[in-house]
Each structure stands twice: as C-alpha cells, then as structure tokens.
Write a structure and sequence with these properties.
The chain is an alpha/beta fold. The chain contains seven helices and 17 strands. The strands form four sheets. Strands 1, 2, 3, 4, 5, 6 and 17 form a seven-stranded mixed sheet that branches. The chain has a five-stranded parallel sheet with strand order 8-15-9-10-11, covered by helices on one side. Strands 12-13-14 form a three-stranded antiparallel sheet, with no helix packed on it. Strand 4 and strand 5 (about 95-100) form a beta hairpin. It is elongated. The mean pLDDT is about 95.
C-alpha cells in the first residue's frame, strides 16, 4: 500500500485524464494520474490536429499532449506513467486502485483509460505486424519513405494518416469498405488535392509477404472480385475498442460494445466513480469532447467530496 490517501485517482493520461487532473488539482484536490504507457494516449500519434480550438495552423498531437502534461505538472498533479492498473475495489467510501507496482487509496475515481486500436483480423495481419503492418503513421511512417502504401479506414484518423504519409511515400491509396468516407469534408478535399487515390467498397482479404509485407489481396464487396496489389506497407485505422475491462470487473456498467455508461455529469452506476473520454458511451470521440467531459467530471468530483453550497448532487 502506498500509504498516501488521494482525493481522486484518475486512470489514464490522455486528453481526458490530463484535463481532469488539471481541474481537480486547481480545485485543491490531491490528485494522482496512473498511466500504463506514457502520457498523451493515442492523441500523441496524430500528425496534425486542425479542429482543436485556438490553433489556427493546427498542432501535432504530440505537441498538444506535451502542453497538457506540463500544465498538469504546473498544478502539482502526480503522474505515474508506466504503471498499469490491474484491479479496482470501488465499493464503499474509500476505494482501492491496485497496479502492477502498488496499491492506492482514494475517495473518488475518474476512469479515463481510452481505447486501443481495432484489428482487421485477416490472414497475415498478425504475422506481419511490425513487418509492414502498422497502426500508427506518425510512429512508423518515416520508415516507408518512397514506398508504396495502403491506408485502411474511412474516418478522420484514416484520412489524416493518408495525408501525412503522402508527404513521405511514393504512392498512397486509401481503401474503405463502404461507398463513402466518414471523414470530414475538409479532409476529403485534401485527399483529392494531394493525389491520394480513394478506393471505396473495398476490403483487405489477405496480407502477403516473405520476411516483410510485399502484397495485399483486395476484395471488392460490390462486384465480388479480388485483386492482388504490390505494396510495401499497410496502415490500419478502423476504429478503437474501449479499455474498460478492469472497470467492468469492478462492477461498473458498460454497454454491449464495452463502453462505460455515464450520465450527463459523467457519473457511472457507482457513487464516487466517474468516466470520461473515449472509454465512455459518448457517441463523438474527439479530443474536444474528451476535454469537455473531463471538466464536468472534475467539477462533479469536487462537489461530491467537498459539498460546496451550490452542489445539488442530483
């Protein structure tokens, strides 16, 4: 047992967790953030964020998250990175958060554990992971300068990845299993302007190679035809799945897709336990919405613990 009692422990140091930490600490709460990897979450892997208010020319996810980390530290938020939570005991007034390294006591918990990348689950994907198959264009893109690449997905993250890679690779194709991209209109226009070929109604059937990827089998789900395409790398952006397992095991209610169910005040079904960001059942998964949820949760935690005159608790 750590021995230190915290007012609030936040699980996850992505945009939601860091924001919750900043607001909690500024309200005078003794705040600990636990992060199993390094602070910033998946947001650090975004090459360019153009829709976060205040940055006219955009900002990289890495830079934005670094600013949030520094701001949290300014307000004396304790951030323990490389410390994975393994078990939660959330019943009663004093809650226990166990990690691989320690055990902590707290009066409130904010779960901001985010998501992890979904896989295609096709032949060759696991075999060639790290050998031509990647889920992070910023991390691995520089390894493919002058190469032929395919990006899989139809949302903003896939479009942003394709745009980033188009500055590095000799050829970039974006394939999507549906007949229209879900990405924002501005991104679709940029894809066309940059010469990224968009191939719709198409799925990956198999990834082939020897030591590394050299070929992919594409399946057209409208015509039923398959074609083999020579390729040096595949970047997969088909969505994320929530990191909600330990919350579920502790009795926190989740929906059928595994997202934590919260109300308008970010409360879960357990008193003193809140959730924010991509791990929740909020339909819009954006940095801006994660930040907004985190602000609400932190203010609610302060009200729950300190009972100021304005706190209604309903």
């Amino acid at each position: 047992m750590d021995g230190t009692e915290y007012d609030v422990i936040i699980i996850g140091a992505g945009p939601a967790g860091l924001t919750a930490g900043i607001y909690s600490a500024r309200n005078g709460l003794k705040t600990l953030i636990l992060e199993e990897k390094t602070p910033g979450g998946l947001a650090t892997e975004a090459s360019l964020i153009e829709n976060y208010p205040g940055f006219i020319e955009g900002i990289s996810g890495f830079d934005l998250m670094n600013r949030m980390v520094e701001q949290a530290k300014k307000f004396e938020v304790q951030i323990n990175d490389l410390e994975r939570g393994v078990k939660l005991n959330l019943l009663g007034e004093q809650k226990i958060v166990k990690t691989e390294k320690n055990s902590y006591t707290t009066s409130a918990v904010i779960i901001s554990s985010g998501c992890h990348y979904k896989h295609l689950n096709v032949a060759g994907e696991e075999t060639f992971s790290g050998k031509g198959v990647s889920y992070c264009s910023v991390c691995d893109g520089p390894l493919f300068r002058g190469k032929r690449l395919i990006v899989v997905g139809g949302g903003n993250s896939a479009a942003i990845s394709a745009l980033y890679l188009s500055d590095l690779a000799s050829d970039v194709k974006l394939i999507h299993r549906r007949g229209v991209l879900r990405a924002e209109d501005a991104l679709r226009k940029d894809l066309k302007r940059r010469g990224v070929k968009v191939i719709l109604n198409t799925e990956i059937d198999e990834i082939k190679g020897e030591q590394i990827v050299n070929c992919v089998v594409l399946f057209n789900n409208k015509t039923g035809k398959t074609v083999e395409v020579l390729v040096d790398g595949i970047f997969i952006h088909v969505g994320e799945a929530p990191n909600s397992q330990i919350a579920k095991e502790a009795g926190v209610e989740i929906d059928r897709e595994g997202f934590i169910i919260v109300d308008a005040k970010q409360r879960t079904n357990i008193d003193g336990v809140y959730a924010t960001g991509d791990v929740t059942n909020c339909a819009v998964k954006q940095i801006g919405t994660a930040v907004g949820q985190a602000i609400i949760a932190a203010i609610e935690v302060f009200g729950f613990l300190k009972r100021p005159y304005y706190y209604m608790g309903s």
